[in-house]
Amino acid sequence: TIVAVTGSLYAANGAEWDAIYTGLSSGPGQTGFIEGGAQLITTGWGIPIAFSETMLAVMVVLFAGTTMDAGLRLQRYIVQEWGNIYNIAPLKNNILATLLSIAACLILAFGVTAGDYPGDGGMLIWPVFGATNQILASMTLMVISIYLIKLGRPVKNVLIPMIIILFLALWASGWYVIDHFQKESWVLVFIELAVIVTTVIIILEAWSVVSKLRSGNAEEASASDG
User: Fold this and answer.
1) Domain of residue 129, residue span
2) C-alpha pair distances (Å), 10 with each of 6, 57, 155
3) Beta carbons within 8 Å of 38's beta carbon, 6+ residues apart
4) Separation between Cα atoms, residue 34 and residue 4, nearest integer Å
5) Among the three residues 110, 132, 165, which one is the final residue of a domain in this structure?
6) Do 66 and 106 share a domain, yes or no?
7) Is the pTM for the entire model greater than 0.85?
């Protein structure tokens, strides 16, 4: 990473950068990334182009491999937790849970397409991931807010950002639902609706917890006054 970044900074001139950067957006992307990145490193450091391309190709493969491994492991854990929570014995099996996780990945990879080639829907999935990621960030702020309320401490500085992020993320998710519905991308529509419904359920649960905390604090205050 250090070699790639500093090599880019040391690139000879802006014209080369513009030519390489424009090429990154064409085609599937891997070729443009490897060849363009190798040109930057070679220009900046004088490393042979073949070595630079090999190094970047290895980086791509390692990143993809570790991402796939971590993602499948986490999905398998989630499936097995469902089996434990709802007492579904087959879901507790390692092999079946792994196969279900792989099936989910295949549906996401090949069930969403931009129409150019199989599995080219990554750029369509990416905005959905971004909106979902912001919802997760707002959920983190929500947990912190509830904890501060429980402690009886000021919560405004956490609650306001949480509301803003949550509103914008849900608004973006709703917009993507409409957009993908019009494009008949049913997999993405299902994912986005599931995320929105789950988020609403969590908000209602959080509201219930906050209401109980406030009523409990009010009872304690009245008892102490009495």
Assistant:
1) 122-225
2) 6, 21, 47
3) 49, 52, 53, 55, 56
4) 11
5) 110
6) yes
7) no
